[in-house]
Every structure is written in C-alpha cells, then in structure tokens.
Amino acid sequence: MNRILIIEDDRALNRGLQYGFGQEGWQVRGAYSAEEGKTLFLTEGFDLVILDVNLPGKDGFEFCRWARGIRRVPIIFLTARDLEEDAVKGYDLGADDYVTKPFSMVLLKRKAAAVLKRTKGVKKEDIYEDGYLWIDFIRFRAEVQGKEVFFTPTEYKLLRVFIDNRGQVLTHKILLERIWDSSGQFVDKHALAVNVNRLRGKIEDGKHKYIATVYGMGYQWTGEQE
C-alpha cells in the first residue's frame, strides 16, 4: 500500500486531500508546517510527498531542499501562484511535478499515480543513494546533497562501474577496457586519470571521499564519509 505525506497549512484542504487519497486506498499522513512535515518524514517511510509552497515559517522550497539531502522521495508541489519562476525553481530543486491551485482532485490523483509509476519502475540496482549522493542510472539524473549535478556520459559509465564493483580494486586496464574499448576509442591512463579527477571534483568534499587511488594499480570505490 502506498504511503503519502501531505504538507499543507490550509487545514480544510489538507483534510480534504487526506480523505480523497484515503478513499483510493492510500495510507495518508498530514502535516500543517514544514517542521511538522520534517518530523514525520524522518520517522516514517513515504512513497510520495505532496507539498505546499507557501508554508508558515520555512516554505516548501526549503523543505524540498532539506528532504533531498535525506532521501529521494517523489515530491509534487502545490502553489497558489501561477508563476513560471516558481515552477522552474521547484523543478530545479528536484520536484517531480507541479500543480497550481485551484486544482482538480482527479487530476492530482492521476499525477500522483503517474509519478509513482515512473519512479517505482526503476530497479533498485539502477539507483545509488547514500544520503549525500543520489544517482539514477536510468534517467541520467544525479544530486549531491540535494542539488542537481550533471555528469558526462563517460562519467556515468565510470560511476556505474565503480558502484557495481564497490570495495574492489579496479585496475587501469579493467577500467580502460570497460569504459572505452567497447566504443573503439584508444584512451591511455592519463585520460582515465583526468576523468576520475573531474568526477571527484563533482562528488567529493572534505567530508565525503568516494574514489581511492591504489597507486601502481588503479582505483577503488570506498564511499568513505568522515
């Protein structure tokens, strides 16, 4: 059974949404502020969040940014403002859809079902998530600490090989064969090192180290966090 968290400060609307989704067989929890939503988000597992933009205190955008740093759960924004910049900001933060008030309950339910179908169609092995780094290898999307980051096709290939073989030492020869030989390109160890260093620059900081250099041999995905 799907579980949904509704964060909306309009109590009548919140209760109406809870009732509507409950009638469809969803398990529903309601929160009336971002802080209340955070408590539920941390203590209970949800398949979807419906989130009002204009919340008292911290707004929906701030909640979305915070939530993306915790775990990847689909989010649909609700807003009374039909402004393009709001929609763009929501999508930039990782929202999966956006609905402007007033809206049809039927439309919202269909959007919710479509988002769940899209996200649940991804196999677990095609997603990497550790609370800091999130990668979807099917849709080629990634986030670092809740902020979207862009990888090149080669960087996605490197990430996939590293993550599928986490903890193992991958020699220069193995990496060169798996990443480049299949495309008929000739690439040397220097080009490999350049790509690995570029990748490190996108995903690592002072507290998060993922790729260790094994001198004279190759590299190893460690996923270390200080």
From TrEMBL:
Q: What would be one Pfam family of this protein?
A: Trans_reg_C
**Keywords, A to Z?**
DNA-binding, Phosphoprotein, Transcription, Transcription regulation
Does Electron transport show up as a keyword for this record?
no
Q: Which residues form a coiled coil?
A: none
Give the matching Gene3D superfamilies. Answer: 3.40.50.2300, Winged helix-like DNA-binding domain superfamily/Winged helix DNA-binding domain
InterPro entries, A to Z = CheY-like_superfamily, OmpR/PhoB-type_DNA-bd, Sig_transdc_resp-reg_C-effctor, Sig_transdc_resp-reg_receiver, WalR-like, WH-like_DNA-bd_sf
Q: Which GO cellular component terms, listed alphabetically, does the Swiss-Prot or TrEMBL entry include?
A: cytosol; protein-DNA complex
Q: Name one GO biological process term.
A: regulation of DNA-templated transcription
Against SUPFAM superfamilies, the record matches this protein to:
C-terminal effector domain of the bipartite response regulators, CheY-like
One function term, GO molecular function aspect: transcription cis-regulatory region binding
| PROSITE patterns, alphabetized | OMPR_PHOB, RESPONSE_REGULATORY
Please explain the role this protein plays, according to its UniProt record: May play the central regulatory role in sporulation. It may be an element of the effector pathway responsible for the activation of sporulation genes in response to nutritional stress. Spo0A may act in concert with spo0H (a sigma factor) to control the expression of some genes that are critical to the sporulation process.
Which protein is depicted? Stage 0 sporulation protein A homolog
| Organism in which the protein naturally occurs | Lactonifactor longoviformis DSM 17459
